[in-house]
Write a structure and sequence with these properties.
This protein has one helix at 379-404; strands at residues 3-10, 24-27, 30-32, 39-47, 52-61, 65-68, 76-77, 80-81, 84-89, 92-97, 106-117, 125-138, 150-152, 154-158, 163-167, 170-176, 181-190, 198-203, 207-210, 222-229, 234-243, 251-260, 266-269, 275-281, 287-295, 303-312, 316-319, 323-325, 330-337, 346-354, 357-369. With 405 residues, the protein is mostly beta strands. A seven-stranded mixed sheet has the order 3-14-12-5-1-10-9, with no helix packed on it. A hairpin with a 7-residue loop joins strand 21 and strand 22 (251-260). The radius of gyration is 51 Å and the shape is rod-shaped. The N and C termini lie far apart (157 Å).
Amino acid sequence: MKTSMRAAIGIMCLGTASLVSAQSVTVETVAAGPGDTGVTVNVDYVAGATDLAGFQFDIDLDAALTGAIEAGCGGDIQGTTVLGNCSSSGSTVSVNFGVFPVVPIGSTTIASFTVDVDGGVTPPANLAMTVTPIALSDTGGNSVDVNILTYNDGAITVAAGPTLDADPTSVSLAAEVGGSDSDDFTLTANGGAVAGISCSASGDSEISFAGAVPGSLADGNSATVTASCSGAAGTYNATYSCTSDASNSPTDVAVDCTVAAGTAAPAFQPENGGTLTIGGLVEGGSGSAAVTFSETNNAGTGYDVSNCSLTGDPNFSVSPTSVSVAAGGSASISVAVDDAEDGDTTTLTCDIVANGATTAYSVDVRLAFRPLIVPTMQQWGMILMGMLLAGFGLVTLRRRGDFTA
């Protein structure tokens, strides 16, 4: 949006009726900072020995500026305050003056106004204030060529102020359930000292921040902040934001985090490729043994055992044929044999589905029989054997006695 200022200035001067081309109207160029308010701009008039009565001109302001004409705008010439008033209608601002008793040769401020630099101005910026001549008259009320005056445009220059910069401006974290992930970012003052620093975090509580950021940083100095993430499986987001007097305030750092369910860590007993022994058997008897599947990661996802089957002699069976193993838990699958005979054998195979992949598990099943029991090798067998031997010896001695009689 453009704002214009039309200044109508009546000047009655003493002197000859000659016009001096060196006379000029100048809008000052003023330096401002981003977001400054009440920036004063002066309008200067360089007079000569003239009989000019007045002139009008517009000042068109850059769209980023908001004009606010000061009440009672004007100047104090030769100790006499110029009587005038300022008014505006839409984008046009009029300045009306009374009669100057004397206009001294030289430069005099004839008007001033204030402007606000919007917060949306991105430095560096040069916000123009352009003068457009409207009318010029002499003391007789006659129009005079406006171009006998030089009209000098002005500007509001907005320098690049200090900034508070984050590096990096975004952080991505990845963790597993039961674990955590963290990374650092820095906040640095560039282009000058930054004061009034106040930082806060918003977003999911699974993301936390650590590190003291001081209320001010000298040019080139930095503060380090650590972002950390942990929690249940899911996706989380947070923002770390710092407000300050820096020209780019607020300074934000976006943090995202993905927490994945823990990786399964299967364990087997017996080991994959090993041997499962069914022991304590007798010929024609039955027995069983179990394979134990464990999950050693308490924060893991668990895994599945499926499609268990046997290949070998038909007198073997497996139960169950599938199980699920929870994180930190265990489950078993049993192999049984009936009518066992020496030399019977089979192989157990299962599918292990863990971490999105399927692997094969296999063990050979062997039988172990109890040793054959000889009755005489037992305690009572030995006693009976001793008694029999004693009786046999007694009979033998008696017979010898009969022969010697």
